[in-house]
Amino acid sequence: MSRDPALRHWASSVADNDADGARWVQAEQRGWAVGERFGFAVLEAQPGSVREELVGNVVLKGVTSGKPAAEVGYWTAAHARGRGVAPRALEALTGWAFDTFEADGLERLELLHQVDNLASCRVAQKSRYDLDSVLPAAPPSFPRDGHLHIRRTNA
């Protein structure tokens, strides 16, 4: 997946080799262990097979007890784009996040993307994340202005 030019363009970090990939997996495991970052593989059943194929990833980040907001993120594999994978996965993550952390004070989820990432804007809209504001560029992670979309617990 890390060789996909679109993912490399939009992602704030990429894996260039096996060692980078291993570090990414270890960071995801640490996030789960400390309870502040929860990444999920998005898998798709393959017809006629017991095997599932990786089609994307969703993540909940910045979860802190008493903090009203956390951030969501996602990516979709090139071969799965345009099939509604990201909105369905984001909807599942959103429901899980509110079910799991609302009692700890979670009131809203934030989705950020660069203004020229039209596909992410469509995913946000399909997933009922309302456009809240345009944020100024913050290089190097966000070299262009960005959109902040928000979904609240009662949406």
Description:
The chain is α+β, with helices and mostly antiparallel strands and 155 residues long. Helix content is 32%, strand content 30%. The chain is built from four helices and six strands; from the N terminus they run H-H-E-E-E-H-E-H-E-E. It has helices spanning 5-10, 18-34, 85-101, 118-126, and strands at residues 37-45, 52-61, 69-76, 108-114, 130-135, 146-152. A six-stranded mixed β-sheet has the order 1-2-3-4-6-5. Strand 1 (37-45) and strand 2 (52-61) form a beta hairpin. The termini are far apart. The model has no long low-confidence stretch (mean pLDDT 87).
Give the number of helices: 4
Q: What is the makeup of the main sheet?
A: 6 strands, mixed
Unreliable stretches = none
How many strands in all? 6
Strand content: 25-35%
